[in-house]
């Protein structure tokens, strides 16, 4: 099975957790895109009477193009379920997210949902978080200050750029700094360290937030629970 096939498989499986009339959070990234496509197809077929909130402009646009009702979080502040991908998942269901730069809005939408289900292919499952760089969303003006603090914490920060060298900006208009710090042996401590820096709006560690992980691999889709 290719990685894309695994993403499609797990995206389709996640749709089974969406019930008629639910308020649904739509995640961001290629696996979430598979979920959104599968959800829209099911909705077109069964008329699920669902309303959605998206964690990025791209997912909102995609959902609407596919016929889903996508509204803002102020219109729909409480969600029944949020389904999103991740860059890494550890055995405690802690995550690194933000490879697509959407971790701030993703954390807001996840925090607004009663249930947070993560959809990944098996390459995302790790024993210890940290092979994937930890992304931080940073206020533009604070970049030099935050970078200098991150260097002192030995977190090896690097501002995210596009291939043409231009600044990568989030949907909220902030910079992203990726920390190439290696293994994160104490995720709670790292989260505290970065959260306390003035100018850091949010970080990509999602700790104790996940209710279920669906993992697609050679044996189909398996579940990881807390
Ligand atoms: C975006 C995210 C994504 O969920 C994460 O990067 C996984 O993406 P993909 O499904 O494309 O591998 O956190 O900010």
Give a structural overview.
The chain contains six helices and 13 strands. It is of the alpha/beta class and 226 residues long. Helix 1 crosses helix 2. It is globular. The two termini are 27 Å apart. The mean pLDDT is 98. The site of ribulose-5-phosphate has 18 residues, from helix 2 and helix 4.
Strand order of the biggest β-sheet = 2-1-3-6-12-13
| Discrete helix count | 6
Number of domains: 2
Mean of residue pLDDT values? 98
Overview features:
Alpha-Beta Plaits; Rossmann fold; alpha/beta; 30% helix; 2 domains; 226 residues; 25% strand; six-stranded mixed beta sheet; binds ribulose-5-phosphate
Q: What's the quick description here?
A:
The protein has helices at residues 3-15, 30-46, 57-65, 103-111, 143-152, 187-195; strands spanning 23-26, 51-54, 79-84, 88-89, 95-96, 113-121, 134-138, 157-159, 175-179, 200-203, 205-206, 212-217, 220-224. The chain is an alpha/beta fold and 226 residues long.
Summarize the SSE layout with pairings:
Blueprint: H1 3-15, E1 23-26, H2 30-46, E2 51-54, H3 57-65, E3 79-84, E4 88-89, E5 95-96, H4 103-111, E6 113-121, E7 134-138, H5 143-152, E8 157-159, E9 175-179, H6 187-195, E10 200-203, E11 205-206, E12 212-217, E13 220-224
Parallel strand pairs: 1-2, 1-3, 3-6, 6-12
Antiparallel strand pairs: 4-5, 5-11, 7-9, 7-10, 8-9, 12-13
Bound molecules: ribulose-5-phosphate.
């Amino acid at each position: 099975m290719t990685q894309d096939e695994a993403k499609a498989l797990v995206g389709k499986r996640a749709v089974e957790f969406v019930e008629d009339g639910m308020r649904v959070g739509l995640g961001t990234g290629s696996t979430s895109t598979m979920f959104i496509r599968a959800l829209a197809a099911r909705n077109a077929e069964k008329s699920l009477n669902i309303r959605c909130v998206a964690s990025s402009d791209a997912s909102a646009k995609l959902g609407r193009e596919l016929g889903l009702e996508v509204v803002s979080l102020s219109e729909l502040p409480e969600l029944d379920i949020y389904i999103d991908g991740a860059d890494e998942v550890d055995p405690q269901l802690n995550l690194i997210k933000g490879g697509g730069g959407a971790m701030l809005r993703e954390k807001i939408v996840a925090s607004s949902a009663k249930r947070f289900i993560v959809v990944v292919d098996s390459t995302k499952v790790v024993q210890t978080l940290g092979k994937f760089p930890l992304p931080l969303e940073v206020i533009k003006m604070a970049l030099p200050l935050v970078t200098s603090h991150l260097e002192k914490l030995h977190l090896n920060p690097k501002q995210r750029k596009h291939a043409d060298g231009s600044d990568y900006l989030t949907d909220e208009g902030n910079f992203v700094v990726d920390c190439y710090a290696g293994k994160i042996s104490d995720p709670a401590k790292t989260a505290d360290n970065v959260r306390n820096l003035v100018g850091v709006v949010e970080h990509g560690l999602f700790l104790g937030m996940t209710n279920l992980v669906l993992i697609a691999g050679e044996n189909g889709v398996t579940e990881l629970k807390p």
